Amino acid sequence: MPSTLPDGDPVPTDGSVPERSLAEVPTRPLSIYLHVPFCRSRCGYCDFNTYTADELGPGASRGDWADTAIAELALADRVLGADRPEVSTVFVGGGTPTLLPPADLGRVLAEIERRFGLAPGAEVTTESNPDTVDAASLAELRAAGFTRISFGMQSADAGVLTILDREHTAGRAQTAVAEARAVGFESVSLDLIYGTPGESLDSWRRTLDSALAAEPDHLSAYALIVEDGTRLAARIRRGELPMTDDDDLADKYVLADEVLSAAGLGWYEVSNWARTPGDRCRHNLAYWQGGTWWGIGPGAHSHVGGTRFWNVKHPTAWAGRLAVGESPGYAREILDPETRRIERILLELRLAEGLPLSVLTDSERARLAAPEQSGLVELVEERAVLTLRGRLLADGVVRDLLD
Ligand SMILES: C[S@@+](CC[C@H](N)C(=O)[O-])C[C@H]1O[C@@H](n2cnc3c(N)ncnc32)[C@H](O)[C@@H]1O
Ligand code: SF4
């Protein structure tokens, strides 16, 4: 979640959403995202809404996060009303959720279950920085009801980890995968970053091999984004490190797809691969397929039937609003049907399942002929699916289609 928030219309102080958006709630799966805005130290490339102990300032503390999250769950319960499905997916992200005691995360999860109910087979994920867990804390998280865990590994190359300012050693993430599996997590994922200044193609290959040796069920590989205002951006500006290079990023993406497919992981979204369709992250799929989700926590975004809203960014402001019984919503946007259709194109074209052609207008359908002829898109059972080359140029394909 980027640290700057867009502007929009004000959110009512009671957090209510328009009736016509609420009317969609019974028809779609319900997801809950929880944002834990704390990190032990800030990685040089990271622009997420997260704070180290020094950055946090007065009026907010890690110890209060669970109670404040529980207060926001009460608000979500009131706003969504009784006519809603049980929760299908929960995702605790950050920041570093596993900096909190497992009992705090467990308490919040128990409150979700008490208020909303968890659907049978619900997917309950936490993100984790591998140096913040051990076998005992993982066992506690599993016992509290977490079914899935995603570790930020980023690289197996000690030099790359140093440039990224990561605190863990190259092998820690792989050990954490084994520990998570041993205590019964149903699905374990690793996050990798490619394109770090100084990373060679061989180093990236070793990272992929080393991640695969841990036998994760799911893997995300992200091209390094040099975010304004980060330490990494400053070092590149000063000429201490070279800027990322688009051709290098493309070569590394192609290598990732080759190595991961050969190991039996199939892509299902441009940056995500899973061992079986059952290992795909259902929470992220809900984002990409227009589900309902409520984002709890500072800066968290929500979507309810075409109304999008997002919370105030700072943990102190978030806690302060909830303490006086007000919504922590900072702003909202009510999407019209045409905007929702365009968002569907943007998101579903990035999925391996592809975009149903029925979503396109006649002129968009005609414009699809060009990327089809140049081998960027294939038509599979009335859906437009990106080819490997198309995945490298996904944004351009969408731009040409919507022209
Ligand atoms: C919230 S973090 C995951 C959990 C934990 N905080 C960690 O870093 O290990 C989510 C993921 O976003 C990715 N990420 C963050 N900033 C990025 C950037 N500037 N470019 C590419 N990927 C980034 C990293 O792969 C990271 O694992
Ligand atoms: S640990 Fe994760 S969220 Fe925290 S600063 Fe590093 S990448 Fe960002």
Describe this structure in words.
The protein is α/β, with parallel strands linked by helices. The chain is built from 17 helices and 15 strands. It has helices at residues 19-22, 53-56, 65-80, 102-116, 135-144, 158-163, 172-182, 201-213, 231-237, 246-262, 282-288, 315-323, 337-348, 362-367, 369-373, 388-392, 394-402; strands spanning 30-36, 87-94, 118-128, 148-154, 187-194, 218-223, 266-269, 272-274, 292-296, 301-304, 307-311, 329-334, 355-356, 377-380, 383-386. The strands form 3 sheets. Strands 7-8-6-5-4-3-2-1-9 form a 9-stranded mixed beta sheet, sandwiched between helices. The protein has a 3-stranded antiparallel beta sheet with strand order 10-11-12, with no helix packed on it. Strands 13-15-14 form a 3-stranded antiparallel beta sheet. α3 packs parallel to α4, α5 packs across α7 (172-182) and α8 runs parallel beside α10 (246-262). The chain is globular and about 55 Å long. It starts with 18 loop residues before the first helix and ends with a helix. Residues 39, 42-43, 46, 48, 50, 94-96, 129, 152 line the site of iron/sulfur cluster (SF4). Iron/sulfur cluster binds at residues 39, 42-43, 46, 48, 50, 94-96, 129, 152.
